[in-house]
Amino acid sequence: MDLNIDDRWLYCPKKNKDAEKRIFIFPHAGGTAQGYKKWAEVLFERNNVEVCIVQLPGRAERMHEDHVVHMPSLVNGLLESIQHFLDKPYICFGHSLGCLVCFELMKEIRNKSLRMAEHMILSAKRAPHLPRQYDKISSQSKLDLVRTLKAFDGTPSFILDDDDLLNILLPIMRNDFLLDESYIYNDSESLDIPLIILGADKDLLASQSELLAWEKHTLNKFNYKIYSGSHFYIFEHEDEILNLMGEVINENHI
Questions:
Q1: Does the residue 27 lie in any domain?
Q2: Measured between alpha carbons, how far is residue 231 from residues 25, 63, 149, 150, 212 in Å?
Q3: % of residues, the chain, pLDDT over 70
Q4: What is the pTM of this model?
Q5: Into how many domains does the chain fold?
């Protein structure tokens, strides 16, 4: 595969034609691929892998593109691009909304008889078959949406206190929340992929029981780990999670 492919959907900050494996990262709602650049660099240095981060439309260099708020349409667009990067064994990491995108993408990859992930690590998202337990966030007023983002504790205060930055961020957040809220789970055969579920003990969006319910979606090994913190605990436990990803990609995780 030509690693110089200019691809809108995937940001691969460290091109590595000699890497034997890849890691695909699926960011959270409102997240950008650039927000996980440090992870890609650390994983590259520690494990000699190529890391590619999914970049959804409507943000960063794709700001001029329309948001996609329908999961099947999103997955179809992503699959059209990512299929060219499935020439090597790979694992996937998804956080929050990224878990749903990853999960639905793997189902479609299976349906197309393409190379499946060797492992999925999914974080801070209740199992997809469970009913939503909270009111719609996408339709909240500006004031209420800012309060919600403050409660999630994942957006820097300097952004939430700056109207110009909010005018950029809030449409992205609304559309990503709408993508999540409009998601319809279609029951299908579980994936034959080892699954690790991660979460936090104070996460208001994904309780431990909701995380454990992911077990029904794999025919393979299932493991889980709970960290201290809230919904964005991954940035407080960054080194531990990067070590876990390294263990998994090097097949040292039991």
A1: yes
A2: 17, 26, 11, 11, 16
A3: 96
A4: 0.95
A5: 1
pLDDT band for position 253 (cuts 50, 70, 90): low
Q: Please tell me the distance from the alpha carbon of residue 250 to that of residue 46, in angstroms, as a whole number.
A: 11
Domain enclosing residue 67, as ranges: 10-129+187-248
The single-letter DSSP state of residue 3 is T
Question: pLDDT tens, 204-229?
Answer: 999 999 999 999 999 999 999 999 99
* Residue 195 parent element (H or E): strand 195-200
Pairing of strands 50-54, 10-11: antiparallel
- Report yes or no on 166 lying in a domain: no
Name which of 93, 106, 126 is nearest 253 in CA terms: 93
Give tens-digit pLDDT for 125-152: 999 999 887 778 999 999 999 999 998 8
Q: Is residue 55 in some structural domain?
A: yes
Buried b (16+ CB within 10 A) or exposed e, 162-193: eeeebeebbebbbbbbbbbeebeeeeeeebeb
Q: Which pair of tokens denotes residue 107?
A: 């189902």
pLDDT at 251: 84
Question: What CATH number should be reported for the domain holding residue 201?
Answer: 3.40.50.1820
Residue 112: inside a domain, yes or no? yes
Encoding tokens for residue 72? 């099947």
Q: At what angle do helices 71-82 and 97-111 cross, to 10 degrees?
A: 60
Residue with tokens 């878990």: 99
Residue 72 clears pLDDT 70, i.e. is over it = yes
Nearest to 54 by CA among 45, 42, 39: 39
Nearest to 116 by CA among 24, 207, 28: 24
